[in-house]
């Protein structure tokens, strides 16, 4: 079985400058059990930083996972979650559930003059409103 990974190695020149190299390493075992590695140097990190995209684009067709570059992703429809999340946060911040519960209890004490309609979604109250009885 072969395991492949990326390694960064550092070397120092005799003048004290340090360089980093990007390497592709494949580890495997001989039949005798000894561990060996095949190493492919991809180059100095500072020189190849912008040039790896083409290599990655070519390699991804052999991957079991599907990868997409940012310019390949398109949004056909956009969900409007911003206003919904804002409304929910404001609802909780001002304690609207408590206010509506208190109004509901007051309606019960006054002989049910107001009928309340409560709508729930996934067990959470979405909104509640009252309708005065018609006389």
Description:
Helix content is 29%, strand content 36%. With 135 residues, the chain is α+β, with helices and mostly antiparallel strands. The chain has 2 domains: 3-63, Nuclear Transport Factor 2, Chain: A (Roll), CATH 3.10.450; 87-132, no CATH class. The strands form 2 sheets. It has a 3-stranded antiparallel beta sheet. Strands 4-5 form a two-stranded antiparallel ribbon. A hairpin with a 2-residue loop joins strand 4 (114-121) and strand 5 (124-132). The chain is elongated. The protein starts with a strand and ends with a strand. The mean pLDDT is 78.
In short:
With 135 residues, the protein is α+β, with helices and mostly antiparallel strands. Strands 1-2-3 form a three-stranded antiparallel sheet. A two-stranded antiparallel sheet has the order 4-5.
State mean pLDDT (0 to 100 scale).
78
Taken together, the total number of domains comes to 2
Stretches where pLDDT falls below 50 for ≥5 residues?
Answer: none
What's the architecture of the largest domain in CATH terms? Answer: Roll
Which structural class do you get from the secondary structure elements? alpha+beta
Number of helices: 4
Spell out the blueprint of helices and strands.
Layout lengths: L2 E10 L5 E12 L5 E10 H4 L3 H8 L21 H13 L2 H14 L4 E8 L2 E9 L3
Features:
single chain, alpha+beta, Nuclear Transport Factor 2, Chain: A, 3-stranded antiparallel β-sheet, 4 helices, 5 strands, 29% helix
């Amino acid at each position: 079985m072969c395991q492949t990974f990326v390694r960064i190695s550092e070397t120092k020149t005799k003048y004290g400058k340090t360089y980093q190299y990007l390497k592709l390493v494949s580890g495997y075992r001989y039949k005798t059990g000894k561990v060996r590695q095949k190493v492919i140097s991809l180059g100095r990190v500072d020189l190849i930083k912008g040039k790896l995209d083409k290599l990655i684009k070519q390699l991804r067709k052999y991957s079991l996972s599907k990868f997409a570059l940012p310019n390949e992703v398109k949004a056909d429809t956009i969900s409007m979650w911003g206003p919904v999340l804002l409304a929910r946060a404001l609802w909780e911040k001002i304690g609207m559930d408590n206010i509506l519960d208190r109004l509901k209890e007051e309606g019960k004490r006054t002989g049910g003059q107001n009928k309340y309609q409560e709508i729930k979604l996934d067990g959470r109250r979405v909104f509640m409103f009252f309708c005065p009885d018609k006389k």
